[in-house]
Write a structure and sequence with these properties.
Layout: E1 5-9, E2 13-19, E3 22-30, H1 34-47, E4 53-60, E5 66-70, H2 80-89, E6 95-102, H3 109-126, E7 130-134, E8 136-144, H4 148-157, E9 161-166, E10 170-178, H5 182-190, E11 195-199
Antiparallel strand pairs: 1-7, 2-3, 3-6, 4-5, 4-6, 8-10, 8-11, 9-10
Length: 204
């Protein structure tokens, strides 16, 4: 990863691994925020309500410092860490992998569990394309509706991502501004009167 780009996955993927009757289903998702991750976990728990464990790891944010790994009841260090290890071995951020386990009646032991969670996470990453994306800094833009076209033109020209938008007489947009175009975007917006620009927390 260089200073202005990062690697992540392009689309969600699912892979399955079996060992001595236990079934491990790994789900990899691209996520941009903790809320994105929570929605994914909620959905998986609903879909697999009878599974014994819903273990996961994620790494979020352009600096990669926002991460978590959960064993969800498995022996400490046997699930979340091996999953996170697979994410990190490929240098990925803005990604979560959730692995669901259905108990098969035979104890796998610590090495067996580590291998199962590591392998299922690895399989999920093997079947989804890894893509390079520009690091974006999120900004909130508030402006009068009359400025709409001009603001949107800058967003388009500078490859900004519109995260949320409320378009009324007074508009509010949250946009992801590519780090390599940040100075340019802020400079252009500064020329407009009555456009309020504020940096927002990237992890929300």
């Amino acid at each position: 990863m260089d200073d202005q780009f990062y690697n992540t996955i392009g689309v969600p993927s699912t892979a399955e691994f079996k060992d001595r009757g236990s079934k491990f289903i790994a789900y990899a998702y691209p996520v941009e925020t903790i809320n994105d991750f929570k929605k994914c976990l909620q959905q998986i728990k609903k879909e697999h309500s009878k599974a014994g464990h819903h273990c996961f790891a994620y790494r979020i944010g352009s600096d990669g410092n926002n991460f978590r790994a959960s064993d969800d009841g498995e022996p400490s260090g046997t699930a979340g860490k091996p999953i996170l290890g697979q994410i990190d071995s490929k240098g990925l951020i803005n990604i979560t992998i959730i692995v669901v386990r259905y108990w098969g009646g035979t104890l796998l032991g610590v090495p067996g569990l580590i291998n199962a969670y590591k392998t299922s996470a690895s399989l999920a990453l093997q079947i989804t394309p890894i893509i390079r994306k520009p690091i974006e800094i999120k900004y909130s833009l508030e402006f009068d509706y009359t400025k709409m076209n001009e603001v949107m033109m800058i967003m388009k020209q500078c490859n900004c991502t519109i995260v949320t938008q409320e378009i009324q007489l007074f508009c509010n947009i949250i946009a992801g501004v590519p780090l390599n175009r940040l100075e340019e975007v802020l400079y252009k917006l500064k020329d407009f009167q009555n456009v309020e620009v504020k940096k927002v927390d990237n992890n929300l």
